[in-house]
From TrEMBL:
Keyword match Lyase: yes
The family this protein is said to belong to: Belongs to the class-IV pyridoxal-phosphate-dependent aminotransferase family.
Lineage: Eukaryota, Viridiplantae, Streptophyta, Embryophyta, Tracheophyta
UniProt xrefs under InterPro entries: Aminotrans_IV (IPR001544), Aminotransferase-like (IPR036038), BCAT-like_C (IPR043132), BCAT-like_N (IPR043131), Class-IV_PLP-Dep_Aminotrnsfr (IPR050571)
Cofactor: pyridoxal 5'-phosphate
GO MF term list: lyase activity
Protein name in the entry: Putative aminodeoxychorismate lyase
Amino acid sequence: MSMASIQILASQNQASSLLLSSKLFHHSTLSFLEHRHCFHPRVSINESHYDIAYSKTQVSHLPLLSSSQAIERLKTFRERIKGKQQYLAMYSSIFGGITTDPAAMVIPMDDHMVHRGHGVFDTAAISDGYLYELDQHLDRFLRSASLSKIDPPFDRETIRRILIQTVSASKCRNGSLRYWLSAGPGDFQLSPSGCHESSLYAIVIQDISPSPPLNSRGVKVVTSSIPIKPPQFATAKSVNYLPNVLSKVEAEEAGAFAGIWLDSDGFVAEGPNMNVAFVTKQNELIMPHFDNILSGCTAKRVLTLAGCLVKEGKLQGIRMSNVTVDEGKKADEMMLIGSGILICPVVQWDEQVIGDGKEGPVTEALFNLIVEDMKSGPSTVRIPVSY
Ligand SMILES: Cc1ncc(COP(=O)(O)O)c(C=O)c1O
């Protein structure tokens, strides 16, 4: 087919074929296309009909898009898939600036993070206009990059400034900041030697509904059958989260909130995006040590804040140690800890009800302490954003 005929097809089928080849095609798109007089369905639109009738025939009519047409379609796509989260701003070292247009929040296909998983990431919560534990997360981010042999494109202070500026541009006062360091774009080889320069990306997300809802005090967990990552990989926060995703899916399929990994010796390790802690019958807070798992910034903060519960006599002690499954299941309290969920009580692990099946007093006290810390903690954990 000549270029000229492709272009004629492109104008005839404006905004149809690319979307038609996707299962994400919905009625809203149909109305958009009909409205523009560019699409005439031959069958009533029902996704399975659509799949059979169009997916095979229409691929031969894929339009060749100009960059402005591609951007237009990206905008339509973003409008169509608005979900529970809103993306308020993105920084990319590729374009060396910040955009607030979700359609432009894209990264190059040949980025080593996209096609080889050669990237690391981290987060920080935005709470009342402050970044919570930004420096602690940034330290882990750079440690993960070093473990992954990614040399950042900027020094720590510059990265920190970029992250704060991105939050400022987003005007977001409550939400989360996520950022990635990648070996960068260059080619599609396995070796990063062809990557032009490492890249930094950051995005500000406004969460409309947190998961789990902060008022749902008590979740079920199951022992994960998905193999845990070996310590070399589990201790770095790389983008290789396939085991974590599969563990989460497995838990959801079992009607649970998360899977709990055991390490190679059978001790309790962590969840797919959270740490785990227990309160023993002797009223001690115990947490698996971080040698084989991700050292959680929230978990570390909890260990510090829990000190005051010891002083007040509400806890007998705090210990990082190996935790057996038996010990964990017999504990008075079990909790999940992470920046996404803060502290979430576990009321059932597999078939075992934990404690009295309700949120325990230590879990509740720790939750209140961390919420208070986010609101009025010291300047070492609260970084103000100037809007
Ligand atoms: C595997 C894993 N473990 C633990 C955590 C908890 O870490 P943090 O409290 O820093 O969010 C996370 C979350 O990032 C994680 O992905």
